[in-house]
Specification:
This protein is mainly beta. It has 4 helices and 26 strands. The strands form 6 sheets. Strands 2, 4, 5, 7, 9 and 11 form a 6-stranded antiparallel β-sheet that branches. Strands 1, 3, 8, 10 and 13 form a 5-stranded antiparallel β-sheet that branches. Strands 14-15-26-21-23 form a 5-stranded antiparallel β-sheet, with helices on one face.
């Protein structure tokens, strides 16, 4: 066992046993993932005037007293509208040991619905970052961007990873690991900036399908129901018409796919790094965690492509086939998880190509 790295499933369970993690409701059977814990919405939400961070000297509740507009009961489900910002206390709370920190990220299905979520703590100065030794409640900012949603107490929109010490692989370590285990299916991997590059596929599948663009003024999406909605009621399919490029319209939401298949070996975890402004005026991939076993052959993956949530900002922007759109960073696991992403957990997106979220049929 390593002394530093990401905590696997059995050590996350041990955090509950030790009191470092607590929950107001019993855990869901599948809530602990190979390298993360799903976080659940609590009993109420507040619509607020604007997004905020509490800052070093304030709790979230203190800021809510000034910024909240009205309270919403989530017990039996409630509609969260597009363009609005909501703050939701979570069922899980923390009392972390001094050597353990954490970070949060939207779940894959959350990102594919264009639901903007960020976790914050009392006295927090950054979203989605929980300092080592933090003790207190967790809150989530939720802002649906394309589709209005129905959410309820227990809905799982975000996930949290726990780590001890420094766990990131260096570029030299990445190069060695890629040579041994093929992290991305590329003839000449682009390893720089602390990660390994992913590029966009705009050639499409056998039918020429390259992606989807979200429709405006749609019906509600229930975040807890699978295969509930007809995809064409919410999405416009996009096809390659010979140009192998795509013009991103400002503030439209697109589901696209990486050209390369991705592989996360069982002893590692991966994350897509935030948007780099040097590659263009767009944001790629809200939901950045890739668990151990993603794309792993023994877990039913044989390489899985990364589905990308893409949004352009300010100006139209032309994406071209093969253009670099993001980078994957890899981290050591402290030890191998008991269950890997994929066949062990009947995971939703193993062996995927271009694929909408689990809510659509």
């Amino acid at each position: 066992m390593r002394q530093t790295g990401i905590l696997p499933d059995h050590e996350i369970a041990a955090l509950f046993a030790s009191g470092a993690l607590a929950t107001a409701h019993p855990l869901d059977a599948d809530q602990i993932q190979p390298a993360s814990l799903d976080l659940r919405l609590g009993a109420k939400a507040w619509r607020v005037r604007a997004s905020f961070l509490p800052g070093r000297n304030h709790t979230v509740d203190a800021k809510l007293d000034r910024l909240k507009l009205h309270e919403i009961d989530l017990t039996n489900g409630a509609v969260l509208e597009t363009g609005c910002v909501y703050i939701v206390p979570l069922l899980e709370s923390l009392n972390l040991p001094a050597e353990i920190s954490a970070s949060a990220n939207p779940k894959s299905s959350t990102g594919r619905l264009d639901i903007f979520t960020r976790v914050m703590t009392d006295h927090g100065q950054e979203f989605d970052k929980i300092p080592a030794g933090y003790s207190g409640p967790l809150y989530m900012e939720v802002s649906p961007r394309t589709f209005p949603i129905v959410a309820r107490t227990g809905s799982r929109l975000s996930q949290i990873r726990f780590r001890k010490g420094h766990s990131l692989l260096s570029e030299a370590e990445l190069a060695v690991l890629h040579a041994e285990q093929t992290l991305v299916a590329a003839e000449e991997p682009n390893i720089s900036g602390g990660g390994i590059a992913l590029s966009i596929d705009l050639k499409g599948d056998a039918s020429g399908l390259i992606g989807y663009r979200g429709k405006h003024h749609s019906a509600l999406v229930d975040v807890d129901k699978r295969a509930q909605h007809d995809a064409l009621d919410f999405w416009e399919p996009l096809y390659n018409r010979g140009g192998e490029d795509l013009i991103l319209d400002p503030d439209e939401f697109y589901i696209l796919v990486s050209r390369e298949a991705v592989h996360v070996p069982p002893d590692f975890a991966s994350e897509m790094t935030p948007f780099d402004p040097l590659v263009g005026e767009f944001r790629v991939h809200y939901a950045g965690f890739f668990d151990p076993g993603f794309g792993h052959t023994a877990s039913g993956g044989a390489g899985s492509r990364a589905v990308l949530e893409v949004r352009s900002h300010e100006v139209p922007f032309i994406l071209e086939h093969g253009q670099v759109v993001g980078r994957l960073v890899y981290e050591h696991m402290i030890s191998r998880p008991k269950a890997l992403y994929g066949s062990d957990l009947k995971s939703n997106y193993q062996a995927q190509g271009l694929k909408l979220s689990k809510h659509f049929r």
